[in-house]
Structures are given as structure tokens and as C-alpha cells.
Design goal:
- The protein has helices at residues 3-13, 29-40, 54-64, 80-88, 110-115, 128-139, 150-157, 175-185, 190-197, 201-214, 220-229, 232-235; strands spanning 20-25, 45-51, 68-72, 97-102, 120-123, 144-145.
- It has two domains: 3-153, Response regulator (Rossmann fold), CATH 3.40.50; 162-235, Winged helix-like DNA-binding domain superfamily/Winged helix DNA-binding domain (Arc Repressor Mutant, subunit A), CATH 1.10.10.10.
- The longest helix has 14 residues, at 201-214.
- The two termini are 33 Å apart.
- It has twelve helices and six strands.
- It is an alpha/beta fold.
- It has a six-stranded parallel β-sheet with strand order 2-1-3-4-5-6, with helices on both faces.
- α8 (175-185) crosses α11.
- Residues 1-5 and 8-16 have low confidence and may be disordered.
């Protein structure tokens, strides 16, 4: 198993069994039913509603205020990107997190979905255990990115001319914070960053918290986007 997914599962096992309320948005009834069965059979987790398109997902999110929305990216009426943008820009839904789901590891919708505010994405063929763990971690405000495709996908969709990039200002970051940000963009977990930089895990978490505050990012997924859009991820570790 990929070490990043392993960390997600370990973090999820260590969390309290507070009920996580999940809204399922997918245009395929069979998949919605499968996700509902998985979620409802998981202790401390409940599927509160289903939506067959993006517009309905937005409506239900506003009515029910779930903890997590499982958002299919390819749906009729309103696609998952537009629905994610509506939910994440709604000031009454700041506690709602979106976990984007896609069938393909190079789906051109994934990067725009992260830009729209999704806290992460997973492939639909992810194992049930990893999906449940991902939902739990997303519910705490963390980000989850499918590690097999993160670097390739983000780099592909953020490849724009330097003069046209609306690059976030990174001048306020320390050298160590830049190093941590590059490693986050490379898909490393906190434990892996700790090992590579030879610093304690609490110190890594402090740096991540500082990055979130300084860059006004919602979660780890947004840090990945900022690292690529600023060009820092492509330049690599600061010297």
C-alpha cells in the first residue's frame, strides 16, 4: 500500500467515532447505492442524502450542511466542478468539505475541481477502507490526494506561461516552510517529510499550520495547488 494512504488510514483509526455526515453526489444510481451501503455500514458515519446531479448536490448541501460531499465530477445539469465551486464559495457552508471522485487518473476535471475548493480527490476504484479513511480525514479539515496521480495531474493542468500566472506571493515563507511546501506538493505525508528533513513530526505539523495560515489555504490540497501555480514545486527545494 502507498505510504501516504497508509498514513491516512492510521490517522483515521486514531480519530474519535464522532458521526460523519456524508452527502453522495453521483449520476449513477448503482454507485450511489454502493457508496451508501459502505458509509452506513461504517461505525460513526452516515449517508444523509443522495444527489443525481450537481444542482441537486448544491441544494442538498445548503439544506443539510453535511460534513463531507462525495462529488462525482461528471454529472448532468451541473457538473461536479461547478457544484464544488458553489458549495465552497457559500459562506454558510464553510464547514462542508468536498471529496472529488473520478473514474480516470488523468481526468481533466480534477485540477479545476481542486481550484474550485475541493479538499482532495480519489479514484472510484479506491479500496473501501481507503475511501472511508479519506472521508474521515477530509471531515477533520485535512486534504486527501490520490498519491499515484497527484504530481502528474497537478503539473499537467498548472502548466501555464510564467507571465500569465496569478502566482501567490511566497516571500513571507521561511526557507524551511518552502522546503515543506515542496515536499507536500510531491505527495509526501507528514511522517515522510519528518524523515526526509530530519525534523520531528510536531515540527512538521507546525510548519504545515503556518503554511495554511500564511497562504490562506483551506487545507493540504490547496497547498499543492499553490506550490505548482507559484512555480515553487517545479523549481524544487530552495538552496
Amino acid at each position: 500500500m502507498n505510504s501516504s494512504y497508509q498514513q491516512v488510514r492510521e490517522e483515521a483509526r486514531g480519530m474519535a467515532d464522532a458521526p460523519v455526515r456524508v452527502l453522495i453526489a453521483d449520476d449513477q444510481a448503482l454507485l450511489r447505492g454502493s457508496f451508501r451501503l459502505l458509509i452506513d455500514s461504517t461505525p460513526g458515519m452516515k449517508a444523509i442524502a443522495e444527489a443525481e446531479d450537481g444542482a441537486r448536490a448544491v441544494q442538498l448541501a445548503r439544506e443539510l450542511k453535511p460534513d463531507v460531499v462525495l462529488m462525482d465530477l461528471r454529472m448532468p445539469v451541473m457538473d461536479g466542478i461547478a457544484a464544488t465551486r458553489e458549495i465552497c464559495s457559500d459562506e454558510t457552508l464553510t464547514a462542508v468539505r468536498v471529496l472529488a471522485l473520478t473514474m480516470f487518473d488523468m481526468d481533466e476535471y480534477v485540477y479545476p475541481a481542486l481550484q474550485a475548493g475541493a479538499s482532495g480527490f480519489m479514484l472510484k476504484d479506491v479500496s473501501p477502507a481507503d475511501l472511508v479513511a479519506g472521508i474521515r480525514v477530509i471531515a477533520t479539515g485535512e486534504g486527501v490526494l490520490a498519491p499515484t496521480v497527484t504530481r502528474r495531474l497537478i503539473a499537467n493542468f498548472s502548466r501555464t506561461d510564467e507571465t500569465t500566472r496569478a502566482a501567490p506571493r511566497l516571500v513571507g515563507l521561511t526557507k524551511r516552510e518552502q522546503e515543506v511546501l515542496v515536499l507536500i506538493a510531491n505527495g509526501l505525508s507528514n511522517a515522510e517529510i519528518s524523515g526526509q528533513l530530519v525534523i520531528s513530526l510536531p515540527t512538521v505539523k507546525t510548519h504545515v499550520s503556518s503554511l495554511l495560515a500564511k497562504l490562506h489555504a483551506r487545507d493540504r490540497a490547496q497547498l499543492v495547488i499553490i506550490a505548482y501555480e507559484s512555480g515553487l514545486a517545479e523549481r524544487g527545494m530552495p538552496t
